[in-house]
Fold:
Amino acid sequence: MPQETHTAAPTSTLAPSRTPAPTSTSVPTNKPKPTPTASPIPPTATPNYADGYETDVSAPSPIAVGETQTRNFYPLGDIDFVNVMVKSGRSYQVSTSELALGVDTFLEVDLNGDHWENDDYQAPGSGDFSSAICFSSPVNETALITVTNLAQLYSAARIYKLDIVEVPGLVLEQTTLDFGQVVSDSTNPASQDITVNGGSSLAWTAAADSAWIALNKIEGNVPSVLTVTVDIADLQPGAYEGEVEVFWGTLCSQKVTVTLQVDPSQGSGANPSFHARPIQVSHRKPALLPPNVPVNFTILVEVKVDQP
Ligand SMILES: [Ca+2]
Ligand SMILES: [Ca+2]
Structure:
């Protein structure tokens, strides 16, 4: 008997899948070019606008005799401190020059307990605010130079030049001339002398600042004597003070103070005891009310009962 065989049911064949339509290849777009990344800038140090001699607060920076330094006033509140070696018996001139806009130097020198200072050596109206000091040293020592900006403006542009040079020394034997008390309308007091000493044949000039002071010469060479007279003809009674200034070198000068007391002459009626006392008339200023201001009056009425 034939055995029944099972034929395997035909498996369904998979319907052929549709092949996907080829997709259109996308047109390559222009890819944005990578922007170059900025290379990092290495951090720079904060710019220092101070002059090359800073900082000089804790220890002044040095300058040599004959040297010129270009400096500025920066940062805020900057004051320049400078040291210079000076020698006994020598004289020196320290000065500032070529001041930028906003610079008005004030110069000081300290040496061996002595102090000199100068703001402006040019006259008012010159527009020049530079400074100069001449000094002589009795010792071999370090002098301290201090420069301040009186304009109080501080930036890299507030520039000036500082220099120190040796100069011939000049010595005035007198620093004051006191002509004492003189009676008005009398003869002038006796003249007095200023002795001018210093380096060999050093030239000097002189000037007085007051019309009542006269000089017998306005220039000379050391050693020499400068004679000073005072003329009281046009002076009213009172105290007078003037100056004689002697100049040498480029910027150096020294002043001699001249004092004089002119007293009233007798018979001039200047004695106050003979003056009639002026009659003093006082005017009482009336009180004024501003216009259109109402004024209130209060009238008090006292009623008395008549006694029978
Ligand atoms: Ca400075
Ligand atoms: Ca000045």
Summary: Residues 50-51, 54, 71-73, 78, 80 surround calcium ion (ligand 1) (CB under 6 Å). The mean pLDDT is 82.
